[in-house]
Amino acid sequence: IKFRGSGGNQVPVADAGPNQTIASDSTGKGSVTLDGSGSFDPDGSIVSYSWTEDDAELGVGATPTVMLAEGVHVITLTVTDDAGAANDDQVTITIDGGYFDDCDAATDWKSANTLTVNTTDQKQGQGCLEATGSGTDDYKKVFSEPVSIASYRSLEFWYYVSDVSKLSSQNQVEIGSAGRPDQNEYNWSLSNLQNGWNYIQLDFDKAGITGDAPDAKNINWFRLYRFKSGNVISRIDGIKFGGVNESPIADAGPDQTLSDDDGNGSESVKLNGAGSSDPDGSIVSYSWTEDNSEIATGASPTVNLPIGTHTITLTVTDNGGATAEDQVTITIESTTGVDDENQIPTEYALRQNYPNPFNPTTTIRYSIPQLGHVQLKVYDILGKEVATLVNEDKPVGHHRVEFDASDLTSGVYYYRLRCNGFVETKKLVLLR
Q1: What is the rounded CA–CA span in Å between residue 3 and residue 97?
Q2: Which of 399, 350, 332, 351 is nearest to 371 (CA)?
Q3: Are 333 and 309 in contact (CB under 8 A)?
Q4: 394: which residues sit within 8 A by CB, 6+ positions away?
Q5: Mind listing the pLDDT tens digit for each residue in 90-114?
Q6: CA-CA distance, 191 to 199, in Å (whole number)?
Q7: How far apart are CA 324 and CA 290, in angstroms?
Q8: How many other C-beta atoms lie within 10 A of the C-beta of residue 53?
């Protein structure tokens, strides 16, 4: 079943999937499977998927796997349906390198033990640092070029110990912005180590602080020290900052169609951004705008909108400063003359159901200027017929029918009117 007729081909809906953060490998790249499987075409089928970045095609198909270099990539999915209509959506892919030091060289590193570069037993890159001895300070370095950790949530690295039985419980890992120990630093104590390689992840929000909190945009100090009872071989590799702040997900709610029932030229509408979320934090602000002018704040504000169609943008901001947007269309219809039985319609018309979204009943209105056999049916998103509302001859005039969806699940549905060769389809949303 295809929804065709005087309404024309409907545009497909592109869905590029959720934003992703992927760790890079030793080559500085990351393998990513893109996900356009949520895309659909309401009245046909999608025949092509094209994934591009900066107008260069990266892949084709619904779920291609691509290799991306470290950094932030804004990728556009373009889907095309069987009638040639196209639609776009974007996804942000972050390939997280974030190395504070890759430990491939000993430049500027200091140790109380014998310090070398081991090019055989590293966990990534070309080598790892190795310290052999019983001294306390295993690894420390003042970085000539400070780095920012403002967009990260943790310090991560590989740490090798040859014999944990010789390690004292007195130890510390430090990063700071003063270029020296015990001043403007985060610090942690390591525990539960095993012989061999250990992957260490230290969250900033669980760190101790010595002096003032470090300047997150100018980190220039690292030290790892451990008291020992004898000679120990230790190694360190791939010191990086992880837990990149992921962008929030904005959800402006379903499109709504309301009637100006009191005839005053406007209607009160409750916007719904409650479906917005943040995968690694919390949303701290909601801003609703129309034509770049803010009309409301908060997750679910009520606004008064005049008759007409309004495209409203919701912008959400998370506690890491990242933002995301979504749009919702609000239609306020005039009721003047719609149901005046004394007026003969001059054209066929299928009107938007009201209310929409609805639960579980809604009213559908239509007009026919000539006597004819009317079919009004409802279909699910796959084109399967789920209800027949009208299937009989109807006289000239304005008509209405109530649709009871008590037996259906929440989701998007389509209703289609046929009469004397006229065909029109509209979308309705059942929201329980």
Answers
A1: 48
A2: 399
A3: no
A4: 368, 371, 372, 373, 374, 419
A5: 999 887 665 789 899 999 999 999 9
A6: 12
A7: 16
A8: 16
Q: For residue 414, what are its two tokens?
A: 């389509």
Kindly tell me if the per-residue pLDDT of 324 is higher than 60: yes
In the block, tokens 């690295």 appear at: 157
Distance between CA atoms of residues 63 and 51, nearest Å: 10
Q: Is 91 left (phi over 0), alpha (psi -120 to 50) or beta?
A: beta
What mean pLDDT comes out for the span 358-384? 93
Closest C-alpha among 47, 203, 419, 417 to residue 428:
417
In angstroms, the CA 348 to CA 361 distance is 24
What is the rounded distance in angstroms from the CA atom of residue 16 to the CA atom of residue 403? 33
State residue 11's pLDDT score: 93
347, two tokens: 């054209």
> Residues 181-193: pLDDT tens digits?
999 999 999 999 9
What is the CB neighbour count within 10 angstroms for residue 261? 10
Question: Residue 409: left (phi > 0), alpha (psi -120 to 50), or beta?
Answer: beta
Confidence of residue 337 (pLDDT cuts 50, 70, 90): very low
Q: Which amino acid is at 304?
A: N
